[in-house]
Amino acid sequence: MTLHSADVARFSWRALIGYPARTLLMLVAMAIGVGSVVVLTALGEGARGYVTGEFASLGTNLVVVLPGRSETAGVNPGAMFGETPRDLTLDDALALTRSGRVRRVAPLNVGSVSVSYGPRSRDVVMLGSTAEMLPVRHWTMAQGSFLRVSDIDRALPVAVLGQTVRDELFGAERALGEWLRIGDRRFRVIGILESQGRSIGVDTDETIIIPVAAAQQLLNTRSLFRILVEARSREDIEPVRDFVEATIAERHQGEKDVTVVTQDAVLSTFDDILGALTLAVGGIAAISLAVAGILIMNVMLVAVSERTAEIGLLKAIGATPRQILLLILAEASLLSLLGALLGLAVGQASAFGLRLALPILPAYPPNWVIAVVVAIAMVTGVVFSLLPARNAARLDPVLALSRR
Amino acid sequence: MIELSHIDRHFQVGDQLVKALDDVTLHIGAGEYVSIMGPSGSGKSTLLNLIGLLDRPTAGRYRLEGTDVTALSDVEQARVRNSQIGFVFQMFHLVPRLTAAENVELPLLLAGMAAEERRPRVDAALEALGMADRAHHKPEQLSGGQRQRVAIARATITEPRVLLADEPTGNLDHKSGGDVIAILEGLVDAGITLIMVTHDPAMGGRARRQLKMMDGRLASDETGGPDDTA
Ligand SMILES: Nc1ncnc2c1ncn2[C@@H]1O[C@H](COP(=O)(O)OP(=O)(O)OP(=O)(O)O)[C@@H](O)[C@H]1O
Ligand SMILES: [Mg+2]
């Protein structure tokens, strides 16, 4: 007396379409649960992908040196509470080039300045750096050239413009070779940066880049905002970090007064946080699956009691308790599967909509989430139907048949 | 083929013991046509359910074709119901969402018969009862008499030895009730053992053997002929 699986499937299917309101209700409940897990994890993954992408765009194998000994330093390192840390200087930056594991070193000063060309003038972010900055940050040039390689302390009067700055100062006119003013100094435009798209911290379109020595003169400071050190490879990042800490400490009379941040560390922290967030959000959404499960149990209990006479009849014509159990569980599984598939479709469609609305967010649900959520939906459906199915299997056929 | 010896079926309702069946001893041979009559609550349905293995006696022994079926497990009893016993109910008990053909097919499906093998048998059964053109109708699209014919087709599709009918005409008008009785009697002529509970003395009187029940006991057991019903 083994049922054919095709018969079981067909019988379950007929039961589902035989009670469309009930079936629709459970499908919707299941679909909401599954769909929200899918779309929320897609959102979380998207955020993670976005942040990691942003960090990757900052440069590869970067070790960043900040003045001041604080994990959160960087906003205004000169005004750290209590102690005033020793300045990071151009000489410090030079010293950091003396390791085989270091490929490039780019010192950085940042300031807000007013730039003018003829009658037009504009406040922009000024970056002071060296020729190394271009490859370190993976920038590309639209026109002309970047800062040339020269002595680090030579304040050459040359400037590289971002797209927006160029447009606003020069409009349709030719900018290359022209002289503009920053404060009371004149700089010749030698290059235009290609638009880099947005990147954490700086929008290169809104900046002007000049030699670091010139920037220090304009800002009237001898201390650097950052030193960007590029290690030769991923494996070199940790040795370079040690090298940087040791070198700076040696130069600062043994004081460890700088913070060295590796991009990997920041990245993996963000990765961890956002990964945990995705799990948490997905987990909360998964609770709605449990709710769907309880709904399934209730609806199946009602279904069994509504169909008491039918179950009694099945027993009268020779269905064993196990066959009854199988039929009810098959019905619940089919329902869960359809609900899960519907939920996947809804979730994927929402994720797609999300990607259309926020193109910067790569909102794709992870494959393992899809597998897990379908599995959870099926297990929930079956587990919560065990009780109704057992009730059905144990039904006394005489009583079941005599009920009207 | 049906041997009931000293069968009791008691129900405990609160602190009261209801003796639905009280020391019933009954033998029914193969191919017999038996009617069971008696007042309401006298235990007719209980007896029929017991014979049909839907219920177990409180005491006593039941042998079907020589085997003690009270000792069988649930699964074994289900198998016996499937292959050797057919039920026809007053309420028809068709599955409402399935077509006539699908309802008739159910016992074969539960027995694990392959779909290709089932189809010709179902078609033949419906054809024999004049229901071939209604094979794909749902029960709600059928008249009471037609529904009962589908139910009879379902009850006989596994070619059981015994057919049990509990007031099969109770929900039918006189005309379709007569049709159903004619069909059942045709099955008797073909060799089936028919046991039918009825309230209608005219119908009960048609049976060759007539049992009367009273308060859970067999009050009379008469063998007459269909001739005495005019
Ligand atoms: N599950 C049960 N629990 C308690 N008492 C029951 C149960 N089933 C039947 N009875 C009792 O057993 C007695 C016989 O019932 P049964 O249904 O066999 O009567 P019946 O002869 O078929 O009556 P009717 O002609 O009204 O169908 C009745 O008194 C009934 O109340
Ligand atoms: Mg009765």
Task: Looking at this protein, list some descriptive labels.
heterodimer, A: 404 residues, alpha+beta, 2 domains, six-stranded mixed barrel, 12 helices, 10 strands, 54% helix, elongated, B: 230 residues, alpha/beta, Rossmann fold, six-stranded mixed beta sheet, four-stranded antiparallel beta sheet, 34% helix, 29% strand, globular, binds adenosine-5'-triphosphate, binds magnesium ion
Largest interface, per-chain counts?
A-B, 31 and 32 residues
First and last CA, distance of chain A? 29 Å
Number of strands of chain B: 10
Basic shape of chain A: elongated
Strand order of the largest sheet of chain A: 2-3-8-5-7-6
Number of domains of chain A: 2
Helix and strand pattern of chain B: EEEHEEHEHHHEHEHEE
Low-confidence stretches of chain B: none
Mean pLDDT of chain A: 87
Domain tally of chain B: 1
Poorly predicted runs of chain A = 71-83
Tell me how many strands of chain A there are. 10
Cα-atom Rg of chain A, whole angstroms?
33 Å
Question: What portion of residues of chain A belong to β-strands?
Answer: 15-25%
